[in-house]
Amino acid sequence: MLGAFRSALATPDLRKKILFTLGIIVVYRLGATLPAPGVSFVNVKKCVEQVDQQGIYSLINLFSGGALLNLSIFALGIMPYITASIIVQLLTVVIPRFEQLKKEGQSGQGKLTQYTRYLTIALAVLQSTGIIALAVRGQLFANCDVPVIPDDSIFSLIVMVVTMTAGTSVIMWLGEIITEKGIGNGMSLLIFTGIAARVPVEGQVIWSRGGLTFALVCVAALLIIASVIYVEQAQRRIPVQYAKRMIGRRMYGGTSTYLPLKVNQAGVIPVIFASSLLYLPDLISRLTAANDGSAPGWWQTFVATHLVSQSSPVHIALYFMLIVFFTYFYVGITFNPDERADEMKKFGGFIPGIRPGRPTAEYLRFVLGRITLPGSLYLGIVAILPNLFLDLTGEGQNQNFPLGGTAVLIMVGVGLDTVKQIESQLMQRNYEGFLR
Asked: Do 156 and 148 meet the contact criterion of CB atoms below 8 Å apart?
């Protein structure tokens, strides 16, 4: 593998792409450290040191590499774009116009991408407004008395909202130029960078708990990563045979191939769905809570005790069930057995022993249902691993624990995809690649 990396860096155009990607990542991390105008950087640092770095926006803070709690210009990270992409993808099933655009090919996909950008800006405005409102009211950092936004005038708050929204637009642009001129998927690499930036911080916290604990965590991390790689690569290959056809004087078809169905067909999307849905009650309870120092109501107490507390059995059980539900839901709307069966029938393809048309669709639906169950259980188990670990941070909140949950799923998935893209470009240049 090291020889393959050396060959990649020795190839001029491939080396240029790799260095370009690394340069964009440096720019992204620089923007994640610059505070937004109107934010007291000193007070923010004091509040971050005093409070537990978890809460309603812990998922966004994870994806932004800690930029959220620093209230930087890239505070929102790539999360608005992810949410907008998921919403547009779901709307293709509900809105006939979107479904038609999806079938139009590259031109229709371009329009859907444009709609995704518009929706991303709208979501960025809403999320930045909510974050700033919580910061002004002192609810973003619990038990922190110093003001993180000293000037809370309307003009100053509008400037902050515009700055954070513009930061999200810049992140979208950075991700797109990485995809176009660099290596790998730009948006995925930016998410990978944000999560990887949190690993040293979390590792330092674990190291402070003792050398034995750190060693056990490292061993557990290797086992978890190996297991995730094994399952992510697992797939059910359904054999497909294409009949011979005479077109003019030439014969086409007669080939054998397979239809790959991954065990984890939904990826990390169900985990993001479940996390966002679980944090919604916390957001509502924070915004509706009284700011006069009075005791919280029964709703705020219930949410904080059973939904926000990640060690609560209610939180763990609900989180697991939501992941299983959204896995089936997302696979059901993204993989249509009827369409696949019609495409195979149109090009003369059939599954040996299965008649084309409706029997093929029923067989694909049966196989998909069988492999979705272990895929959903795998996602749920990996996602709740941080909740089942010992309290390594001493705060009872391990959602951003870097060796389990959403973090390891995204990092392993993006890492495998990037390595495959580099290997494919090496193979085009007659190198052996990573696998020998």
From this structure: no
Whose tokens are 């959204």? That residue is 326
The burial of 103, by beta-carbon neighbours within 10 Å (0-12 exposed, 13-18 middle, 19 or more buried), is given as exposed
Q: Which residues pair with 246 in a beta bridge?
A: 251
- Residues ≥6 apart with Cβ < 8 Å to 311: 387, 391, 396, 397
Mean pLDDT of 388-406: 52
Give yes or no for a contact between 376 and 153, defined as CB atoms under 8 angstroms apart: no
pLDDT, tens only, 45-82: 777 766 544 455 566 666 666 677 778 888 888 888 88
Taking each helix axis from N to C terminus, what angle separates 186-207 and 211-233, rounded to the nearest 10 degrees? 150
**Distance in angstroms between the alpha carbons of the first and the last residue of the chain:** 9
Q: How far apart are CA 222 and CA 220, in angstroms?
A: 5
Instruction: Please tell me the pTM assigned to this model.
Output: 0.76
pLDDT tens-digit readout, 203-234:
777 777 777 777 887 787 788 888 888 888 88
Domains of the chain: 1-209+418-436 (1.10.3370.10), 210-391 (1.10.3370.10)
Average pLDDT over residues 278-284: 74
- What torsion do the CA atoms of 202, 59, 125, 131 make, to the nearest 10 degrees? -60
CA distances, 158 to each of 124, 152, 161, 162 (Å):
13, 10, 5, 6
